[in-house]
Amino acid sequence: MDLLTASGIEAGPPPVRRVRVLLPLPLASAYDYRVPDDMDLEAGAYVEVPLGPRQVFGVVWAVDGDEAGVPANRLKSVLRRFDLPPMPEVSRRFIDWVAAYTLSSPGSVLRMAVSVSAALEDPKALLAYLPSGDSPPPGFKMTDARRRVLALMEEEGPPRTPADLAREAACGIGVIRGLAESGLLTPVALRAQPRPPIPDAHRPGPTLSPDQAAAADALRAAVDARGYSATLVDGVTGSGKTEVYFEAIAACLRQGRQALVLLPEIALSSQWLDRFARRFGVRPVEWHSDLAGAHRRAAWRAIVNGEAPVVVGARSALFLPYPDLGLIVVDEEHEAAFKQEDGVIYHARDMAVARGFLGGIPVALVSATPSLETLTNAETGRYGRIDLPARHGGASLPDVTLIDLRRPDSRPPARHWLSPILVDAMKETLAAGEQGMLFLNRRGYAPLTLCRSCGFRLQCPNCTAWLVEHRLSRRLQCHHCGYTDRLPETCPSCEAEHSFVACGPGVERVAEEVAQLFPDARVALMTSDTLVGPQAIQTVIEEVRAHKVDLLIGTQVMAKGHHFPMLTLVGVVDGDLGLGGGDLRAAERTFQMLHQVAGRAGRESRPGRVFLQTHMPEHPVMQALAAHDRDAFLAAEADQRRAMDLPPYGRLAALIVSGEDERQVDKLARDLARVAPQGDDVLVLGPAPAPLALLRGRHRRRLLLKTARGVAVQPLLQSWLASIPIPGTVRVQVDVDPYSFM
DNA sequence: GCATGTATGTGA
DNA sequence: CACATACATGCG
């Protein structure tokens, strides 16, 4: 019996069912849609909806729409629902949380979680063939190529795609088509993408040192606790941190849950993937921005369908809708690459901790040189801490020598960049049949080119930056916007001919000097210009390992955890490079980078030597590196930050005002400063020109909000921005917890 | 984010 | 006046 009728209530027309749908657009909130009668939707369902003249995808954010909002008669209907498991509730809460924290729209965050809309569609079945076993039809001509294909198909095996068959039989795709038309091959529909292979959590791992085993036990315990925890895994280079967190991944896999590993630059870590494969038998699913097209689609679907037990990725992998995430590892947690600087501005390490908290799962932050933030959290007990003290394999720490570039006897000759002390060390290393490495974090030939006769400096038309001469490619390049140009024959200002002089060194110039000093040495240059794609990096690495290279010269790309047994000398050409500029973390970052570079020297049984050229040998960074005293450096750095109420002892947020019209940008920035929030614990600095006052043709100003640690900056920022109209031609970006300072 | 309408400018 | 281009708006 109908309950409504029975209770005397008139059964009117059935109410319109409405849902809130979040769209991947920068809108303030979700939109309401009507649910068709024949459709069932739960929160998290992926749907397609009409939006103006377009059709866009969205995710059902709530099943009870806003009745007081758009009237029912103006609602549009959900068009269809995609055949996918709904986005889990944790993922949805995480998206809302990140949006609120970063002051961006939830739709923009959703875009990061579903960055391949094509992956929502069912994948097209792939055509594959099996042998039909039929006899050839009359008129069939047997050829060598056809025979090869048929012979190949004699072997038992799964159906194979035309492309695979053609490749294996070394024939054209037309041969396959011909055979299919003759009825000798039977077409079958194949699942378009094979499932990723399953890592084997039960494979025995490597033998761990007592320290490693203790650390692995502690991390495993965190996984088995099945609750939120954040743990710093602090271990010097070569202490075997990776093996330790692999054990935590194994524990997570044994629970049947997914594990996520965030790496700073996934594209550069094929060594990491190999290591993973050695431990678990297969490679994990990768997720990063270089992944495109079908690969990206397949990876997303595998993750969402719970078919990717382990995902390794760059920062953006954090936002993917994992159905049952059980562990997050942030490797090299101190790396600046985790900070996303445009669009939704966030720090992946911090967001990872938030994701762990919302999901009730453990997060491991791994580093040899932890960030001050993480270290402070470990010291105050907010995070757990696991120390891995020993350098695995028995190699001792390298001997670090500071070369004072101010002293006449250690200064390089004019127009040279290598101190005689370093050159002597290089001679010794080469004579001993060992390898050396020179590090300079500056691409190109020279950072600045100027006209000898009038002093004109070659500058980027779109940015406040010098154009960098690249001799290898015979071009000038802007390292900020990608502008390139030929080196002009005559000075654009005074028209003098061949008047340009290079000022200062880049790696190319150091390579030139090395070629003069050591004409017989085999030299390899390693920069992002010379190495296009991960394969190229791998090739150089192999060559160095095979000792086909005596001297390696390069930038940051070279500093990452590759280890070379015969490398015993590291020369840092300009140790002061990172210290300039108004960066809050300049000292910390320089220390981290140089520490990592120094760690390349002498890893096996050979002792390593590091020579660090600097103009400030008394600087705490240099002293800490020479004395191998990281903790003293961090303590001093912490004292300074505390004294100035800077993070992690105070909070920062930045506003970046940008636009093409400099006067308009300047005016808005000054207007914002005028209506800045006030209070005892609140201070607004600026506006000041942003570090690159002109970037990609846009003028930029920065305002900095500095508050005490306990202050919630988001509401402050929100009311601040709402208090003043912002013209459409000017953009105001909010950077909560900015990395660079002014 | 993007398609759309409206305001504004450019040239015959 | 026709047409191109800049900016503001709303999308449920």
Automatic annotation (TrEMBL):
SMART domains: DEXDc, HELICc. Keywords: ATP-binding, DNA replication, DNA-binding, Helicase, Hydrolase, Isomerase, Metal-binding, Nucleotide-binding, Primosome, Zinc. InterPro entries: DEAD/DEAH_box_helicase_dom, Helicase_ATP-bd, Helicase_C-like, P-loop_NTPase, PriA, PriA_3primeBD, PriA_3primeBD_sf, PriA_C. It catalyses: ATP + H2O = ADP + phosphate + H(+); Couples ATP hydrolysis with the unwinding of duplex DNA by translocating in the 3'-5' direction. GO terms for cellular component: primosome complex. SUPFAM superfamilies: P-loop containing nucleoside triphosphate hydrolases. Binds 2 zinc ions per subunit. Residues 222-388 form the Helicase ATP-binding domain. Its EC number is 5.6.2.4. Pfam families: DEAD, PriA_3primeBD, PriA_C, Zn_ribbon_PriA. It comes from the Bacteria. GO terms for molecular function: 3'-5' DNA helicase activity; ATP binding; DNA binding; hydrolase activity; zinc ion binding. Zn(2+) 1 binds at residues 451, 454, 491, 494. Zn(2+) 2 binds at residues 460, 463, 478, 481. Its cofactor is Zn(2+). Gene3D superfamilies: P-loop containing nucleotide triphosphate hydrolases, PriA, 3(prime) DNA-binding domain. Initiates the restart of stalled replication forks, which reloads the replicative helicase on sites other than the origin of replication. Recognizes and binds to abandoned replication forks and remodels them to uncover a helicase loading site. Promotes assembly of the primosome at these replication forks. Component of the replication restart primosome. This is Replication restart protein PriA. It comes from Nitrospirillum iridis.
